[in-house]
Each structure stands twice: as C-alpha cells, then as structure tokens.
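Researcher: I'd like a structural prediction for the single chain below. Treat it as a standalone chain; there are no partners to consider.
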Amino acid sequence: MTAAGYASAWSEPAATLADAADQLGGTEERLARVMLADWPDSALRPPTALLAEAGAGCGDLHRLVRAAGFRDLGELQARVTERLDGELTAPQERFRARLRPAQLPGLTRRMAEREAANVAATLDGAADDGTLDAAARSLLAARQRFVLGTGRSRGLAHLLAADLGSVLGRVVLLDGGTDRAVEALTDAGPRDVAVVYSVRRYDRWTLRAAQALRGRGVPLVAVVDGHGSPVAPLADRTLTAATGGPSFADSPTALVALGHALVTAAAARSKGALRRLERREEADRLLGRLPDD
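Model: Treating it as a single chain, here is the predicted structure.
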C-alpha cells in the first residue's frame, strides 16, 4: 500500500499510516485502507465505524496507529484536525470537511473532548508564559480601557466589556460604531490600554481601529486565534486561544474562557473591585433592574 495520490498537506500522516499497514499486513492493512479511502475525512470517523467496516478489533487499531507513530487514534485525529483548522479558512469549506453524514456519530462527544482540550491548552499557555498576568496588570494601570471587537468577535467584546466594567471603571466598548470610535480616538493616549479581539475571518474595521489606537500610542492586548490575525503584530501582548474543533465554525469556547480569566485576574488584583461590585448592586436596586430576592 502507498500513500501516493494524497494531497501534499496530508502526506505525513497518510504516508506513515500506509507504511505501518505495509509493515503489519493482514487486518491492520485492511483497516488502514478504510481510514485512507476518503482521506482526510475517513480518518476522522468514529473508531466503532472504522472497525465495523474493516472487520477489525480494538487491538488491530491500536497496533496500526502505534506503528504509524501515534499514541492512539485520538492523537492521529488531532493531527489531521489541526491541519484542517489551519487550511480551511471559509466556513463552507469546514462544513464540507467536517459535517458529512458519516461523521455525525459521536460528534457531540468529540466536540466535548476538543473543547476541554482547547480551554486547558489556552489557559495553561497564557498562565505559563506570564502573558495573562501582564495583560491583567496593564488593565489595572490604565486610565481608560478600550475593548474592540466586530464581526464574529463582537459578542466576545461585549461579554468582556460587561464583566470588566463591573470591577473596573472607564471601560469603553468599540464594536464598529464610527461616532464612538471617533470620540475614543480623540481622547486616547499612552496611559490607556485596548483589548482587541481578532478571530478569522478577520474584520477590516477592527484592524483599522487597532492601527488608529496604536498610532495614538495606546498599548494593545490582542486576543486572537492561532491562524495569523493581522492585529497580533501590532500588539504589545498577545493572548492566543485554541479554536479548533469538529464544527464548521471555529470554536469560541477558549476565547470566552480567556476573556473570563483576564477579567478574573484583573479583579483579584484590584483594591477597588469589591467596592465597585457593591455600588453597582446598589445602583441596580435603585433603578429596579433586578428582581426581588
């Protein structure tokens, strides 16, 4: 068996799988043929479906993927998915690649596993390299705190601005409105900070606004995916979230968790956060916004 004919982007995992099948022969070779039949989609099918079609057992699958250099099927599928994440930029391309009928069994389980892995990798990375702590401190030291996000990032920006505004003052949300952006740029300066959400497909307004703030000397904290956000090179600090998964849409889960961690880190270091929360609670009661307890 050879891996000839497969796209070069997939040559490494496909070739190692084919080589392992040649080495092992028998049932493992038959199983490899099933996994390579419609590469890369066929390799992402649930293990039960692969085993049933090949007439193989769990031991056969384990021997095959180990001989191909992977710890288990999950690691092989993660490698393939990682490559898909980087190459399939349009939602319709991801839909075609990930949501075929054969891939529906076990979809929710695979999503849950990938989301948990995304959040763990994202928060561990941000904490280990000190970026999260540094970003939180920059929020505390700032005179004004701008939060930018448009397009698919708008919801992320709104959530961060709402939570950040509950513990720190002078939080300004910029979500595409020209008037508010003009007002912000009029007063912006080096004593401020801007948190900029930028995830694919990258919105031009966000980039222009980030460039304008940067031109005013405002330090930038970029919250991005790992696919080459144009905002990242402008930033003083960059928080990167893992957004891969089996859906047509890049996952927002780790991005939400990253924003939540950033607000929590800032609040924990702020001497006035608790008092502000208490005053906001009092203001909400005075305005009758909250139901009676």
